[in-house]
Amino acid sequence: MQDHKDEIRHIVAQIGEVEIDKVGDETHFSNDLGIDSLRALELMVALEDKFKIRVPEEQLGRFTSVNNLTELVIELQAPGAVSSAA
Amino acid sequence: MTRRVVITGLGIVSPIGVGKEAFWQGLMAGKNGMSDIDAFDTSEFPCRRGGQVRDFVPSQYLSAESLSRLGSVSQFAVAAAKMAVDDSRLNGHMEPERTSVAIGTTNGEAPVLEEYCTTWVKEGYQQIDPQLIVRYPMHLIPEQVALEFGAEGQVVMIPNACSAGNWAIGFGADLIRSDEADVVLAGGVDTLARGAFIGFNRSFAMAPEMCQPFDKNRKGLMPGEGAAVLVLEDLDQALRRGAHIYSEVAGYGVSCDTYHITGPDPAGRGAVDATMSALKTSDLRPEDIDYISAHGTGTKPNDRVETLATKKVFGDLAKRIPISSIKSMIGHSFGAASAIEAVACSMAIERGKIPPTINYHEPDPECDLDYVPNEAREHKVEALLSNAYAFGGNCTVLALRAMR
Amino acid sequence: MSKRVVITGLGILSPVGIGREAFWTSLINGQTGIKPITLFDTSELACKTAAEISDFDPRVVLPGMKTGMLYRTAQLSCAAAKLGLDDAGIELDAATKPRIGVMIGNTLGVMQSYSEFYRGTLERGYLAASPLDFANTIAITVAGYVSVMFGVSSFNCVISSGELSSLNAINYGASFVRRGKADMVLAGGVEVLSLESYLLNYLPKFLSGSTPGQREFCMPFGKERNGTVLGEAGAFVLLEDYEHAVARGANIYAELRGFGVSFDSHAFVESAPRSKGLTRAISLAAKRSGLLPEDIDYVSASANSSVVKDKAEADAIRNVFGSTTDRLHINAIKSMTGESFSASAGVQVCASALALREGVIPPTLNGYEQDPECNIPLFSESREVKIKSALISASAVTGLAGALVLSTPQ
Fold this sequence. Notes:
The complex is a heterotrimer.
Chain A: H1 2-16, H2 29-33, H3 37-51, H4 66-77, H5 81-85
Helix pairs in contact in A: 1-3, 1-4
Chain B: E1 5-14, E2 17-18, H1 20-29, E3 35-36, E4 49-50, H2 64-69, H3 72-88, E5 99-104, H4 110-123, H5 130-133, H6 140-149, E6 155-158, H7 164-177, E7 183-190, H8 194-202, E8 226-234, H9 235-240, E9 247-256, H10 269-282, E10 291-293, H11 300-314, E11 323-324, H12 327-330, H13 337-351, E12 353-354, E13 377-378, E14 383-390, E15 394-401
Parallel strand pairs in B: 5-6, 5-7, 10-11, 10-14
Antiparallel strand pairs in B: 1-2, 1-8, 1-9, 3-4, 7-8, 9-15, 12-13, 14-15
Helix pairs in contact in B: 3-6, 7-13, 10-11
Chain C: E1 5-14, E2 17-18, H1 20-28, E3 34-36, E4 49-51, H2 58-61, H3 72-87, E5 100-105, H4 111-124, H5 131-135, H6 141-150, E6 155-159, H7 165-178, E7 184-191, H8 195-202, E8 233-241, H9 242-247, E9 254-263, H10 276-288, E10 298-300, H11 307-321, E11 329-331, H12 334-337, H13 344-358, E12 360-361, E13 383-384, E14 389-395, E15 400-407
């Protein structure tokens, strides 16, 4: 889980164009980091690629913090999740 | 004395018909122009439908020599221009130095670039055909139109994406008003591009089945393709030669949101500004407007914001002005869209009927205006507005009125 | 009475320098920006040189702005806008932002980004398609990003007409000032160098040195010229309502005067005289300025070492200026900045505005024999000379030609 978190933090910093130490577990992507809806989609593509998952569109609302994303990734990696997303 | 600008010729290539009569019949019948796309392989995409042009026969409009020289996008544009000039009966009566061309687009000759990329990936860039790649630069599209008719005035491409057609018409009208031209061939063109199809699929902006502007259950836009060219002409010249006048270009308004590169300002600031500016430049009052041709893409944010902006400008009048989106029938043809809508608007003024918004089933509490649901309507139109908004927060509104 | 429009700011990023001062110092000292290409691998190409903005880093010009994921054209565009606004001393606030428009000349802005996006989908499948990269394939965003980044909201628009793009943008942009829609407009051109845009010119052998055995050399009006050398630039001016500029005590570089355009619909006919379109465009620009040809002191030529175009331009200048051609100051700065296509006339406008203000005209970088067929006077060292009116000419091989006159405001 910590590995996932660190990976996600790194991706968020890169796509959000912010220093990695600004990205805390509960830092809000849009309010605190200026990550807009387009960059959120970009995050989605990066997560899909990194963790070999498919993120259904209705889950985009959960793209708000590292903690929420980590939770989402773990859910989507669970057995059965991929087929429902595909 | 200010020169006035009128529309005296219409040419159109659309998914519901090629040529103004076929197009108009489609609009009046509420014809759905969506089909399964087969212009390229769509098998891996979740959304596969769109507005593909099916009955365009290039050789009806273009010589064999032109066909061998022109990319597919230029073919649409030149064919639409040819129909428009024929319709205006200006053939042979355009003074080269007083004739200009302004065309809008989103992607230009994207199919050329996609073919170039395919060769690059499969065989390496050294194998790219130089004769293919020289067709790519997008300013060649209006130049091909100019060559066809010997136009020697200003010749420009305005790649302002989904609002490009309105821009091209506005630009052209300015040339006539400022006495730089007597005739301008103005319009827009785009063809279905696989790259754009992927982009919209991947951004969750596309609807899977149908385009449902302003409906509560709308799911997104449907990509389309087409071209429209309008003959803009100096009023005095048009009167002198006894031309048929569809409508007058009363004015146009432009503005921009600075909210986001791809999404609209939730408060509709740019749309409101552009509408006010269109009314001001055309010397029209809100109560003069009989019809609004909506941008109406069928995405959640667009239709909500467009409705909001209309209410902000028109107040209590908003509920009484019919507003419809022909994108429900033909999809979103991007750079061609607002030029095609200008053709529909010109014919609405000419014929006293307005096209419907089809696929409209369930009202959305946030979209509570009269969207002319599902059936065309008899309605006298003296003055109208046509909205078009694009990426980059680019907002435009064209104002047309009946010739008086 | 139509409003007067003046230039009060220059936003220039060029191969000979970023920012007005670096650009001008290089030009008047005859320093070229043409050098071996570093932006992409040239090991499999016969040509190896171009005029790159090799030291461009958007983070330096645009501190605090998220521009890292924009395509290079949009980065340059935002940077040119920033430099132009700063040079004009504009404070961006609630009063000024709605009164500033954006009008950008650009033709190939998304050629690289669309290609990269599309090749990515071919190589890695559609799921790898990046939504941000997709936004970077839409040409209007080259203006849209300027509006969004700086919050300037009068309008934004892109105009594409090849080498004429910057002049079209400046002329159309000025019309919004004249009719009172905006007090100020960022207008000009931008075009970047990429392998994609290079191939567009290299594969059909438009470039100097693209035929093996040829010497690779940019020599506008030169006897042995054999094609152009590409460049890149972001070159905007801040157009401003004259009264507005005076009221805020702005530094005025020049006033916009007449503009002329012509499309030569016979340009593809081999036997047609190539100079016809530009001759008409230059005459129109002078006439609309209310000037006689002899009132114009300086011509900034668009010659770029192209065999056909340079000769046509020399002919056009002589057609219009006749016997007064020999007292004109004429230069071709593409000898130093390369051919930056949609941005090129914008670069010429920036240089001409500086020439008017500084009383110095940069040279045509020399070191080669002039073509006797290009019968116009050139010079190889900068000249100190007070001038009142400058004409910027631009022409494309496809038949488009244009000219713009700038004057010192009276």
